[in-house]
Sequence to fold (179 residues):
Amino acid sequence: MQRQEQVSTTAECAGTVAAKRVRGVPLPVSAVARHPSPPCPRHRGASRRRSDLDPGPGMRSQRGTVTAESALVLPLVAAFAMALVWMVSVAIEQVQTVDAARDAARALARGDDAGVVDEQALRTAPAGSSVDISHSGGLVTVSVSVVATPPGWLLVPLPGVTVGSRSTVQVEDDVSAQP
Fold:
């Protein structure tokens, strides 16, 4: 008479490979693969059939809802990403106007020629910018502004945004003494 070994599992189903033990010692994977145990009675024959997916009378099938939702959401996400890219480009233009106004005001406060400073400010500022220079008392004020228009690849028509900066610097003492 051959002695049969008692097989126990730690999981609910006897079909799990990693949980098989003989007298508390785990079986090697090769032994489990050669001698599979019968499936759990609760899950026997639980294969998915087309009839299992049928929702029944009065209920609609949920198949394809993820595809439909993705088809609606992905264009919105893409449009939002494009709008964010445009907003970043507007912020870059703002930084360029700040740099142009600051550099021009410093140069005028040092006593540089106004025509040369105006040209330098237009090179530093974004394309299409306007530069205004004013002197009052011992102060020099430079204003740089530009209308940032949305790019053509942005499918939603948006209005232009006016971006500008103003910088005021006190004229240096030795410059104000010059004639």
User: Anything to note?
Assistant: The first helix runs from residue 29 to 34. Residues 82 and 153 are 9 Å apart (CA to CA). The two ends are 124 Å apart (CA to CA). DSSP finds five helices and six strands in the chain.
